[in-house]
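Audit log entry. Action: structure prediction of a protein-small molecule complex. Ligand: fe (ii) ion. The ligand was supplied as SMILES and no pocket hint was given, so placement is left entirely to the predictor. Protonation state taken as written. Sequence taken verbatim from the request; no trimming, no tag removal. Recorded inputs:
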Amino acid sequence: MPEEKKVSEFLAYIVAALSNCALYSDKHPAVEEFSRKALAILEGLFVDDVLNLTVLAESIIFNDTPLSDISMHTYTFIKKLRVKGIDRLVIKKGVSLEELHSFIKTLASREEAVSSSPNIAIGVLEVRFKAEGDASAIMEESIARVKEVYDGVSRFRRLDVHGLEDVVVRFITALKREASMLSNLNPVREHSLYTYVHEANVSVLTIFQAEALGLSGELLHDAGLAGLLHDVGKLFIPKEIIEKQAELDESEWNIIKLHPVYGALYLSKMQDVPELAVVAAYEHHMKYNGMGYPQSKRRLTSHHLISQLVAISDFFDALRTQRAYRPSFGLSAIIGFLREGSGTDFNPVLVDNFLLSLKRIKAV
Ligand SMILES: [Fe+2]
Ligand SMILES: [Fe+2]
């Protein structure tokens, strides 16, 4: 069997084991069975006693050779690694079934971080970011990354989702380490940076809310990505309207109101964008009572939970920013507005979750 095919098969067994962990439990016999099959193929893949797997953008490189055919299971494997912040894997000859099995179990787990074992070394993405630790530095760097990706957006070009996935992983890790990340949400200093800063802030706020609700793993990751991409449709609205330094008239508003549709349409064509991000881009201006836009015949909480979280983050962040026609609001005023809108504009359970979590970290 050619080398590349063997790697693909190895990954297919790993993904089958991962799926069984998710479907049943990591103790299910199928998990061990697939781990065993993966190990059998692995034996033939070592070069100088190691197998090197590096995740690069949307591809995977094994021992210096890029995998040319990215199948569904390879994509799933890449995504699993990304969600855990892993971009490199070195497996050494001599790896035992127990080691591989336990690597698969932690990779499948929503909570546990994957750590290196004697024969499986993990490379973590952290090193790709220059800034270490400091929350405001993380924000600065992430905003630059969002700008870079957004600058590349056009109807005819693919979106560099992976550039944004790194940002999300970074936000999740930073929020876990220090809740003060939230007080480091950037105020917008330069008007031209508004969109990127806003997308980054909404992402952090959405992860914060989602985590407080108990979301974790891939779902939490996708919620962060949904926050980062919620307003991507604004890139297809004329700049004069987006950047207008005065209140918009009705016809301009009607154009702005198309951004959820443009965003969802654009994202739906991108292969690697999770569906959740497409849905949130479409629904983030829908209100809890069925009003808002795009207009929908559905009523009350029938739109996605993540869209409802993004709506709260969006509202919160937008009010913090000064506009030509209104001042920026302080935290207590914004909380007052959120309470006022609870039950009509916003899901009351989610407003309570947000406000209680802010209290818990002593942000209010
Ligand atoms: Fe929006
Ligand atoms: Fe927004």
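Audit: result stored. The beta strands are 50-56, 59-62, 65-66, 86-92, 120-124. DSSP finds 15 helices and five strands in the chain.
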